[in-house]
Design goal:
This protein is mainly beta. The protein is built from 2 helices and 10 strands, in the order βββαβββββββα. It has one domain: Metal Binding Protein, Guanine Nucleotide Exchange Factor, Chain A (Beta Complex), CATH 2.170.150.70. A hairpin with a 7-residue loop joins strand 6 and strand 7.
Length: 127
């Protein structure tokens, strides 16, 4: 079953919604940027994401290959979502930025420090 989740950055300048399962599988990644930002990932197809407010408040950070587009609020600095390198046709939602209560979350680990070896295991998430 799916439901609509509302989400935002800390200051509320960026607001979005997604269609996602009532039971969420969230990913904890140990790569340097994910560890430092404390993100808890929910990767969904882009068609399930809607930016409701705040396009002008988004800033972007890219590194390494430049494929991943790390977007964050230029007011409060929170990273509510980004385009992941593993799923450039999808979007990774920071579960911590969802305002709608979540019924159930199953957290799984991902070895992002060895990204090249394991990235294929995430490819199906934006289908």
């Amino acid at each position: 079953m799916f439901k609509v989740y509302q989400g935002s950055c800390h200051c509320g300048a960026i607001q979005f919604e997604i269609d996602a399962p009532t039971k969420i599988e969230a990913i904890v990644c140990n790569c340097s940027i994910c560890k430092k930002s404390g993100a808890l990932h929910l990767i969904v197809p882009l068609r399930q994401f809607r930016l409701l407010q705040g396009e002008a408040a988004l800033s972007s950070y890219r590194f390494n290959t430049g494929v991943a587009n790390h977007t964050f609020c230029n007011t409060c600095g929170i990273k509510p979502f980004y385009t992941p390198r593993s799923n450039p046709d999808g979007i990774s939602i920071n579960v911590h930025c969802l305002d709608t209560p979540i019924d159930e979350v199953n957290v799984v680990d991902f070895d992002g420090q060895n990204w090249e070896q394991y990235a294929h295991s995430l490819a199906h998430l934006s289908d």
